[in-house]
Amino acid sequence: MNCKISHKFSKKFLIIYAVISTLSFILVENSNINKCVMNGFLVFGEAISFMILYCTYSESRERDKKYWLYLFLSIFSYFLGDLLWIIKDIFFDSFTGLIYISQVFFLLQYPFSIIALLYIAWEKKNLYLSIQVFLDMLVIVIAISVVGWRFLVRNDIINSHMPFFEKFFLISNPIGDLAILFSIILILLFSKSFIAFRVVIFNIIALIIEVTADLINLYVKTNTINVNTDFLELMWLTYVLLVSYSALVYKYNGCNFKCIRQSKKNENYTKTIVKIIIPYLSIGVLFTAIFCIIENIDIIMWGFAICVGLVIISQLITLMENKRLMQLLIESNNELEYKTFELETINRQLKKSNLAKESQLNRDFLTGLHNRRYIYKKLDVLFKNKFYNKASVLMIDIDYFKKINDTYGHEAGDKVLKQVSMLMKLYTRTNDSLIRFGGEEFICVLLDTDISIARDIADRIREKVEAYDFKIECIKIKVTVSIGVSEARLVKCKEDIELAIKKADKLLYKAKQLGRNQVCI
């Protein structure tokens, strides 16, 4: 399904569609034609709505997808119910079983919608909050259903000659609408993270329209009133279009659940009181209904009612105090987390600064190679819990470096040191430890390397330095190096490497004596 249609176009289309369907209902006088037209508008409008909801589900962020998926399934089941009802009216007028199948699809919209709303509470991975919202919603729906049954529709339903299933479906629709309506209100009160406020408003208006239509339908059918109810189709269509319009509002707001922030403490306090009182208020309504029914109320009933009332008031006060303490705890915890975060940030910055300083202390500022201090620290770490079967050491010295300094100046000497260092880094291995030992002397420690490989590396360095064009102010100069190569066996501590360094130093001296630009092993 292609979901790339502009949300602005979709919003305008829904508004125009609603206006055209309303005008058609008003202008078409023939009731049969009017019914066919409204059925067509209703089914087509529902199809458009569930496609919009599917597109919203596809384009929404990962954390919001399940909400829009269940809402899509809710409207899709509503669409299937209406479609089967119209098919029955046109082709299978005598087949009453299709009505029951259609009603089942109508009722499926309620569990899907409630699951979508409960997902908002579960979005914070709070199981207890989800259970609390569900139970509070159940209390409210039961209270409204019981009172409505007793005082409004009981006699009409009992005296009606309709089949049991038809009665059941008629009662279930407004109860389901109320369940979803109060679920939205409770989720809005209990959860700090919810949909954008305008999305909530459109859903609430849609549900008010649907519950009104379902109650009118219930009253008309149970009392067998002879009145044209085609306008109910228009109300149900308006409900579906408003739900899909809320999805477009969500997309317009950036495909994101908005965080509803209370800027003032008294607003938080009022919100807390409201969400605590609602379930207890429902219980109070039930008790009031009981006292209205019972004719002879003795002192025990009065005492029971007063005690229950006092217990509820006491519970309300306790809950509000708990909420206040919990709010203080949350604020303290947030402040502690913020301070901890600040300390961790400072600690990370200090560690970073210390590492930078440590790196500066361990590196030669001119060549960028590690210095003498670094090699001894690294050897301590390397030989802490390990030993090596063999290791080789290269002692490298730039030939006639003093002459270069005296002839061309110290700046030229520094340039030669940098270029020789660059060549050595290019032609040694990644794991080899190359350091500037002092002046024009360098050391390369090659762990797990025998003397033959070390000799090859030394020869390569000597050859590359000899072949390199060193230029000092456009003057080419010849630079060579002498290298002493030593080997140590069963290297267990840094002292073994130090002995190899001393041996390599002697071999370097020998290379110098033999005429320089040589490798001695």
Brief rundown of the structure:
By secondary structure, the chain is an alpha+beta fold. The chain contains 15 helices and 9 strands.
Helix-strand layout with pairing:
Layout: H1 7-27, H2 31-59, H3 65-90, H4 97-122, H5 127-159, H6 164-190, E1 193-194, H7 197-222, H8 231-252, E2 258-259, H9 265-293, H10 299-362, H11 372-382, E3 388-398, H12 401-408, H13 410-426, E4 433-438, E5 441-447, H14 451-467, E6 470-472, E7 475-477, E8 481-491, H15 494-513, E9 519-520
Parallel strand pairs: 8-9
Antiparallel strand pairs: 1-2, 3-5, 3-8, 4-5, 6-7
Helix pairs in contact: 1-2, 1-8, 2-3, 2-8, 3-4, 4-5, 4-6, 5-6, 5-9, 6-7, 7-8, 9-10, 12-13
How would you describe this protein?
With 521 residues, the chain is an alpha+beta fold. It folds into three domains: 7-254; 264-362, no CATH class; 372-520, Alpha-Beta Plaits. It has helices spanning 7-27, 31-59, 65-90, 97-122, 127-159, 164-190, 197-222, 231-252, 265-293, 299-362, 372-382, 401-408, 410-426, 451-467, 494-513; strands spanning 193-194, 258-259, 388-398, 433-438, 441-447, 470-472, 475-477, 481-491, 519-520. A five-stranded mixed beta sheet has the order 4-5-3-8-9, with helices on both faces. It is elongated, with a radius of gyration of 42 Å. The relative contact order is 0.06.
